[in-house]
Write a structure and sequence with these properties.
The complex is a heterodimer of chains A (81) and B (632). Chain A has 81 residues and is an alpha+beta fold. Chain A is 17% helix and 36% strand. Chain B has 2 domains: 14-215, 3-Layer(aba) Sandwich (Rossmann fold); 237-444 and 457-628, no CATH class. Classes of the chains: A alpha+beta (81), B alpha/beta (632).
């Protein structure tokens, strides 16, 4: 699933990041949007875009346009940290 | 980026880099250690460019260099390259990496990256007090042994732990303490493959954090999330923003009224004494006129009109800024900026423009895309700065509220002022979009925006800092400009060519054009002479009118209104003056800053022309329509 499509605030695990802009790709990885990283949707702005995610203990907002390049899958329920 | 860094204090001791993620209190650490006063605010990216200062510890001097805050050193943005180059340069002897104790996991990534560049690193876990409050316990000793470099916990705002930090730095610089060689070897071994490196460092940071942190309160950030929900929700987010705007203006208008009047009457009394003194020493009339009617009157008007609102507005604004509200504003408004083809961080630079447009222009360095940075620069002037608020406040109060200031009427003034500001913000969107479609064509680029934890502002220090560092600074700048401007306008009003003064000639010459804009020659003249600082527009206007009707004492809003009405002002003049206040050229300081930031005469001219054309056009249309429908 694309991260931009996420609606519930379950924790999800990033499976793939493929942003066409190399600099943004690296930035996303550095912030913790990297394969294996755990991400949680925490805020949706009034216009539904951007959305803010809790990642590595920080809240980071990104636009849907960028979030669509991040693929995630739902985390096992009993595994929540 | 050139390889050479030029520091002023390079010779004054060991050069130390101060690195860290944005918004971790790096500037606070820097200020505490150096005694300097870099402005800090609770939003990422406040420090743009490199600041340096000296610090002394045990008879040794250190030249601390505050690098721009970065999340990482690998994504090749401008500030990251500056930080990386400096840390690696021969100049930098050691690096202090400042971390936020409340989000150590993210911060450790940068620590590990820095440890790959330099083996002289001290880790400063700052905001330890915030972490304690949130029930986050960090085992500093263990962290130190896992990282293999000294780790010091600090609460820089309380000046806690900074002595230990300097002591650790001292040991690292003198090579008494060295990085764990096995750690160094392991880190060096990763450098080959960048992608692998990124992942390994991130995983390592997570592993370390899981080992050293205990959350005694799992829901430590629940309050922040709740507050975020309210401040950014569809139903409440934008209304609360507008409400806050109104409240801030209301407090400013209501609170500034009495002190403004007191100051004005005080200056009036002093003026009388000055005149008596001038008479007693037989001062020639031309000198008395130039000094008292010219310089003194303009100066005292600037102070009494400017100081009280600034002394209230700046602290209120700084409170919101320190609290961490501004990134939420950026989050709420981002979609509008995206639609306009601009960057959401423009909301932050726009907010800075409320204080001073020059500061807003410098602030655009946080926007990575050059195209979006230019949009933010050209449109920054559409939010009225502190120098323009007094013009707006006094005209709104006089013409649309009634000059008797009660709680209700000042609330109405605040609402109208907020409306004017919102018009300015909407204009920012329109013009940004127009620029994106024409001379700055392009699609919005990617960006990430951190929403920092809310912090309780330190009210005392906010007040002291915002009044002394900002309000008085801005006031001083205005005064420096006001004194000579007062002299110029007095000379213009008193030197005769033929049977009228230069002022009459000039205002007469531009009057027909100004009339098309629904203004008059004196108003337009005041705006033109106000180029160095908008603060002097009102005083010049007053002097311009006074020079025509000499028997006038001016010390209250009611009298001011009479003066304006006597000179033919109508509600339409007031509306057009308000419009022209938000739509006209940036002040000379802002223009110089734009030139410095863009290094381009072309973009400086565009920044001058866009709001000016907008202002001339809008006022002409409004005037035309008003006359067409016979509203005046």
């Amino acid at each position: 699933m694309e991260l931009s499509k996420l609606t519930s605030n379950h924790s999800v695990v990033v499976t793939k990041v493929a942003h066409p802009d190399a600099q943004m790709q690296q930035r996303l990885m550095d912030l913790g949007f990297y394969p294996g990283g755990v991400v949680k949707l925490v805020l949706v702005s009034p216009k539904k875009d951007p959305k803010a995610f809790e990642v590595r203990g920080t809240v980071i907002a990104i636009r849907n346009e960028d979030a669509k390049y991040i693929r995630v899958e739902l985390k096992e329920k009993n595994d929540a940290r | 980026m050139p390889d050479e860094f030029i520091l002023q204090n390079e010779k004054n001791g060991h050069v130390i880099s101060l690195a860290g993620n944005p918004n971790v209190g790096k500037s606070t650490v820097f200020n505490q250690l150096t005694g300097l006063k870099q402005h800090t605010g609770n939003w990422p990216g406040k420090t743009v460019g490199i600041a340096e200062g000296t610090s002394q510890y045990k008879n040794k001097y250190y030249c601390l260099v505050d690098l721009p805050g970065t999340y990482s050193l690998s994504s090749n943005s401008e500030e990251e390259e500056v930080a990386q180059d400096f840390i690696q340069s021969d100049l930098s002897e050691a690096t202090i990496c400042v971390c936020d104790a409340t989000s150590l996991e993210r911060n450790l990534n940068l620590v590990l990256q820095i440890m790959q560049l330099s083996d002289k690193v001290v880790v400063c876990v700052n905001l330890i007090d915030e972490a304690r409050k949130k029930g986050i316990e960090i085992n500093i000793e263990k962290l130190q042994s896992l990282l293999g470099v000294p780790v010091i916990a600090t609460a820089a705002r309380q000046n806690e732990g900074l002595d230990n930090l300097m002591s650790a730095l001292d040991k690292v610089v003198s090579e008494e303490l060295k990085m764990n060689p096995y750690m160094k070897k392991a880190l060096d071994g990763l450098k080959e493959n960048q992608e692998e490196n990124t992942k390994t460092l991130l995983d390592r940071a997570t592993a370390i954090v899981n080992d050293v942190i205990i959350f005694t309160n799992e829901d430590y950030n629940r309050r922040d999330r709740k507050l975020d929900k309210i401040l950014t929700q569809k139903l409440t987010g934008i209304p609360i923003m507008i409400l806050l705007l109104v409240v801030v203006f209301w407090l400013t208008i209501q609170g500034a009224n009495a002190p403004s009047n007191t100051l004005a009457s005080m200056f009036g009394t002093i003026g009388v004494y000055l005149n008596q003194f001038a008479a007693s020493i037989n001062m020639p009339e031309w000198l008395r006129g130039a000094l008292i009617d010219g310089i003194y009157n303009v100066l005292s008007t600037v102070i009494s009109v400017m100081l009280p609102p600034m002394a209230i507005f700046f602290p209120l604004f700084t409170l919101l800024e320190d609290f961490g509200y501004l990134p939420r504003v950026a989050f709420n408004l981002d979609k509008y900026f995206a639609n306009a083809g601009a960057c959401g961080k423009q909301a932050l630079t726009m907010c800075m423009g409320f204080g001073c447009n020059a500061a807003g222009v410098t602030g655009t360095r946080i926007i990575n895309s050059p195209r979006e940075k230019l949009i933010a620069i050209v449109t920054n002037n559409f939010v009225p700065c502190n120098g323009r608020f007094p013009i707006l406040i006094s005209i709104i109060t006089m013409f649309f509220v009634g000059s008797s200031v009660s709680l209700g009427s000042s609330l109405l003034s605040a609402i109208l002022l907020a409306g004017t500001v919102i018009l300015g913000i909407l204009t920012t969107f329109w013009i940004s979009q127009l620029l994106s479609k024409t001379i700055l064509k392009g699609v919005p680029s990617s960006f990430t925006l951190e929403m920092p934890p809310y912090r309780r502002p330190q009210i005392g220090s906010v007040i002291v800092r915002s009044i002394f560092d900002r309000a008085l600074f801005v006031l001083w700048r205005a005064m420096i400009v006001a004194a000579p401007a007062g002299l110029v306008i007095w000379i213009m009003a008193n030197v005769m060519i033929g049977d009228s003064s230069i002022l009459t000639w000039v205002t007469g010459a531009i009057d027909p054009f100004a009339r098309l804009m629904g203004l008059d020659g004196t108003i337009l003249m005041a705006f033109i002479l106000g180029l160095p600082a908008n603060e002097i527009v009102i005083p010049i206007m007053v002097m311009g009118y006074l020079s025509k009707s000499t028997l006038f004492e001016f010390d209250s809003l009611a009298q001011f209104k009479t003066l304006l009405l006597d000179n033919g002002w109508t509600w339409l003049t007031a509306v057009n003056t308000i419009l022209f206040t938000i739509y006209h050229w940036p002040c000379s300081t802002a223009l110089l800053t734009i030139y410095k930031e863009t290094k381009s005469a072309k973009w400086t001219w565009i920044s001058f022309l866009v709001p000016t054309i907008m202002g001339v056009g809008t006022t002409m249309v409004v005037t035309f329509l008003a006359h067409l429908f016979q509203l005046v």
